[in-house]
Amino acid sequence: MSLDRLSIRGVRNLEPLELSPAPGMNWFSGPNGAGKTSILEAIYLLARGRSFRSARTARVIQKDAKALTVVARRGDTGNRLGVERDADGWRGRIDGRDCQRISEFAALLPLTLIEPGSHALIDGGPDRRRQFLDWQLFHVEQSYLLAWQRFARLLRQRNAALKAQAPDRVLDALEPEFLRGAEVIGRARDELVGRLSAHVEAVQGELGFRLPGPLSLRYRSGHPADSELADLLREQRARDRERGFTRHGPHRAELALACEGRAAVEMSRGQQKLIAVVLLLAQYRLLAGGQSLAPLLLVDDPVSELDAPHLAALLDWLGRESVQSWITATSDSPVSATMFHVEHGRVSPQ
Ligand SMILES: Nc1ncnc2c1ncn2[C@@H]1O[C@H](COP(=O)(O)OP(=O)(O)OP(=O)(O)O)[C@@H](O)[C@H]1O
């Protein structure tokens, strides 16, 4: 999948921008603060409805502007996606019709983002890794989003009932469906981790990153492996009532990552960055298996993040892969790429 048109207005310091990106590597170079990352941020905003570097999307809107707009066209399908965001909220359009569902944008614009904060996938909380798995499942299994939303609703209902000290019959009525939802989510994630592991092994081999050994992935279900979730919910209901929330289930699951028996979380920041790159590129590969799902790759500032041999390995890998990549750096590309120069928010082809 690739974009052949991108237009951005009212985003941070960027001047109104109309861009015709190449299907392969697009390299944006320029000094610090020029606006390079803001281009990636705008694409991410279109695909996911939020920024990856600011919790408040309103911050992304240009100072003194009323709204921002981002519009893009998919080169392969011709789909046109547009989003407008102002202080009151956002409006989306897909192929000329109004669309308020972020999931539709995400489905048409799959992307993989590698940025300086990506190591949080390794050393951040388990919710990061669950989200990492769930995003892939949203793309590959149509029904997963619904199953996940249903489970999230049941979890909220059970937690509310626990907090309110609702009678046992309320919990008895909720739990069978909660368990069915937990089963669906657990099975889908577990299978995904199996498939992802094969891609991790391949990508790690191709990149040749210097890690202590092969990266291993294991899905932990959110309850002890030697117990049944149904038994735990029943037997530990009193403890759950004391705490006011459900202590076991897929909302507490973990994706355990290790290298030669060492937990990835204990490794150096630099190694964690390499592991994050391997995982994210494996995610890209897994999604690229279903042609129209092949994500865009957004890579923010890899030159500062990776040492020279690892950067060369990454760029070499990207050059071999048929992927549309969007890369930012303060220097020009050392490999063949379509180059753009960014300065004071102005983007010009080089
Ligand atoms: N809401 C806003 N309105 C106008 N300008 C903004 C707004 N928010 C941030 N800026 C400015 O926009 C620029 C954003 O730069 P951005 O982070 O995209 O640059 P960059 O080229 O990626 O820089 P670096 O190499 O330092 O990461 C900064 O100069 C910042 O001061």
Automatic annotation (TrEMBL):
Keywords: ATP-binding, Cytoplasm, DNA damage, DNA repair, DNA replication, DNA-binding, Nucleotide-binding, SOS response. Residues 3-332 form the RecF/RecN/SMC N-terminal domain. The keyword Transmembrane does not apply. GO terms for cellular component: cytoplasm. GO terms for biological process: DNA replication; DNA synthesis involved in DNA repair; double-strand break repair; SOS response. Its main location: cytoplasm. Signal peptide: none annotated. It comes from the Bacteria. PROSITE patterns: RECF_1. It is found in: Cytoplasm. ATP binds at residues 30-37. Pfam families: SMC_N. One of its GO terms (molecular function) is ATP binding. Belongs to the RecF family. NCBIfam families: recf (TIGR00611). The RecF protein is involved in DNA metabolism; it is required for DNA replication and normal SOS inducibility. RecF binds preferentially to single-stranded, linear DNA. It also seems to bind ATP. This is DNA replication and repair protein RecF. It comes from Wenzhouxiangella sediminis. The gene is recF.
